[in-house]
Each structure stands twice: as C-alpha cells, then as structure tokens.
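Before going further, learn to read the protein records used in this course. A complete example follows; check for yourself that the lines match position by position.
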Amino acid sequence: MRFYRLGMAVALSLLFTASVDAQAIKIGYVHAQEVLAQYPPSQAAFDRLESANNNWLAELQTLAATRDQLLAEYQQQQMSMTPEARQALEQQITAQNSAIAMREREVQNESQQLQDELLQPIMAEITAVIEEIRVELGYALILDANSNAILAADESLNLTQEVLTRLEEKGAADGSR
C-alpha cells in the first residue's frame, strides 16, 4: 500500500510537471502556400515554370496533331491501300505514339527538374526565415497551416505575415528583389 501511494504521488507530480511544461511551449503556424503566393521570387519561379510547361504542352500537341493526321489518313484510305502501304502507315502511327509517350515522360522529368531547380532555393530561404523567427521569438514548434495536421488554431499564433515581412526585408537588404 505504501508503494502504491508513493507511486501515485510520483505519477501525479510528473503529470503536473508535464502539464506545466506543456503550457510553456510556444507553438505557431504559417500558411506556406500564402507565403509562396505573395513572395515575389516564388511568383517569378512559378511564372517561369508555367511558361516552360506551356511550351512543352504546345510541343506535345504538335506531336499529337501529326499522329491524328496520320490516323485520319489511315481511316480514309485503308480500304484502297495495298497491304504493304497499310502496314507502313500503321508502323508510322505506332512510331508516332511511341514518340509521344517518350516525349511525355521526358517532359515530366524536365518539368520536375526545373521545378526543383527554381523552388528549392526559395523554399530554403523561406525555411531559414521561419527557423530564424522560431529561434528569436522562442517558438518550440512552427507548423504549416496548409497541412492536415492543424484542425483549428488561434489566429494570434499565425506567423505568416511575420515571415513575409522578413522575406521582404531580406530582399530589400540584398537589393535583389
């Protein structure tokens, strides 16, 4: 019985200490998508990425139009074609389909590579500013409000504007943005 009381006393003191420590932890959050949308370097990166994607899409549409033209020609003339001519046109269509599929994969890879190249330095800069805020203001944790981890939060914990302000100040200090 004596150990039971001692154990309960220790457990209650640990519980009380843990709840006091939990109350002292500062937690904040940032709307990362909002930061990306409002930060000029990321806007420029997204514009460049969109332009490249539009160029790649036009290229793929041209390849598809060529294939569609071959298909239409095949459908119109298939009855009057010799077996050799029909087979040659079928091979052209198959080759065009293969070329389109291969180019689509290449475009996907090129797009991902360009996205990484453009956005990784920006994300590193944003993350550095968030870490700077976390350390300076004594936050134990800063979460991304766009993740599904936050279901509800006090708006006073929102650090998005602070992040944007510091990014703007850094850009002005660098003179590059």
